[in-house]
From TrEMBL:
The lineage of its organism: Bacteria, Pseudomonadati, Pseudomonadota, Betaproteobacteria, Burkholderiales. InterPro entries: HATPase_C_sf, HATPase_dom, His_kinase_dom, HisK_dim/P_dom, HisK_dim/P_sf, PAS, PAS-like_dom_sf, Sig_transdc_His_kin-like_C. It comes from Rhodoferax antarcticus ANT.BR. This is Sensory histidine kinase/phosphatase NtrB. One of its GO terms (molecular function) is phosphorelay sensor kinase activity. Residues 139-356 form the Histidine kinase domain. It holds the Pfam family HATPase_c. Keywords: ATP-binding, Kinase, Nitrogen fixation, Nucleotide-binding, Phosphoprotein, Transferase, Two-component regulatory system. Residues 7-62 form the PAS domain.
Length: 356
């Protein structure tokens, strides 16, 4: 029996690399193997589950029993349906079930948590949108850059030819606005110009640097709370990019907190934690950095909640709408992800970055 279990563990060990929940069962529902993700979801070890009756793990076991018999009898080779998975000391987990005939009597049952599936779909849309935005920005910025230089140069030459000094006011407007647009273009192109400089990064040194910059800008009326997990290891990354990403998010929070800063009760919290066995970007990671930037401001306006990472989208007058876009770009260059949950009085930007 131990030899058979070892053989199954060896045969199916690739399933442990998957983020989805996988069980290999016989047509009578007896479990031959479950992967690590299934163990985590059910709260039971593989040793206990092997040999148990898999349909009993569901709120409606009869449905899966019937399906397994049908697949085992070659009535059909695959089937999908939605169900609820029972878990130890937790609420039932809504899942999408995929039942597929493998070899001989073996049937593979794959479970996709519906919440996870929705999140993966959302992450995929965000990644595709970010890629499209990056290409659009880069192409647009290059197209704007050359004419701007010509406009500014022509305005300077025109100013030299204009005798009445009062007319210089108009050429100065042209020069000033050309410089402002040039600065905007430079910021758009910044992530694509600088090389990704990789070194050892201590995330708490990054947080300390950003905190000092924020406190220097807002010495009164703002409290910056540090809530750190000191066990987080160093990882390979671009320290300057991460400082800029975190600074952009923190400055965005400060701008939203302007009224509370005046009142003297504004608060930003930097919180670090280790996330274990987490899936994002269609990959499962054993460990990941979870960095939160939490503020007690008014929250992200509903009108832009779904678009806050788009370029040139800003919730305040005069904002460039580039801070969060650039933060997203820098974090994605670390194979990471930024998420935002916002309600009035509580906005939480969460950065996820894989750890070694």
């Amino acid at each position: 029996m131990n030899g058979a279990a070892l053989t199954n563990a060896e045969r199916y060990k690739a399933f442990d690399l998957l983020a989805t929940l996988v069980a290999v069962v016989r047509s009578d529902g007896i479990i031959l193997f479950v992967n690590a993700a299934m163990e985590d979801a059910l709260g039971m070890s593989r040793r206990i589950m092997v040999g148990a009756h898999f349909p009993d793990c569901f709120t409606q076991p009869e449905y899966l029993r019937t399906i397994l018999k049908g697949v085992g009898g070659n009535d059909f080779s695959a089937l999908r349906y939605d169900a609820a998975l029972l878990r130890v000391n937790r609420d039932a987990l809504p899942v999408h079930v995929i039942v597929t005939l493998n070899e001989g009597p073996e049937i593979i049952v794959e479970l996709l948590p519906l919440e996870q599936q929705a999140r993966q779909d959302r992450e995929e849309r965000l990644a595709e949108q970010a890629l499209a935005n990056k290409e659009l920005i880069r192409n647009l910025a290059h197209e704007i850059k050359n004419p701007l230089g010509g406009i500014r140069g022509a305005a300077q030459l025109l100013e030299m030819e204009l005798a009445p000094p009062d007319l210089h006011e108009y050429t100065q407007v042209i020069i000033h606005e050309a410089d402002r647009l040039q600065s905007l273009v430079d910021r758009l192109l910044a992530p694509h110009r600088k090389a990704h400089v990789v070194g050892d990064v201590n995330i708490h040194e990054v947080c300390a640097r950003v905190r000092s910059l924020i406190m220097a800008e807002f010495p009164q009326g703002l409290q910056v709370v540090q809530d750190y997990d000191s066990s987080i290891p160093e990882f390979r990354g671009d320290r300057e990019q991460l400082i800029q990403a975190l600074l952009n998010i923190a400055q965005n929070a400060c701008q939203a907190l302007c009224e509370r800063i005046i009142q003297g009760d504004a608060r930003i919290t930097f919180r670090t934690r280790v996330a274990r066995q987490i899936t994002f970007g269609k990959q499962r990671y054993r460990l990941a950095l979870e960095l939160h930037v939490i503020d007690n401001g008014p929250g992200v306006p509903d009108a832009i909640k779904e678009r806050i990472f788009y370029p040139l989208v800003s919730g305040r007058d005069g904002g460039s709408g580039l801070g969060l876009t650039l933060a997203q770009t820098f974090v994605q260059q670390h194979q990471g992800l930024i998420e935002c949950d916002s309600l009035p009085g509580l906005t939480d930007f969460k950065l996820l970055i894989p750890l070694p």
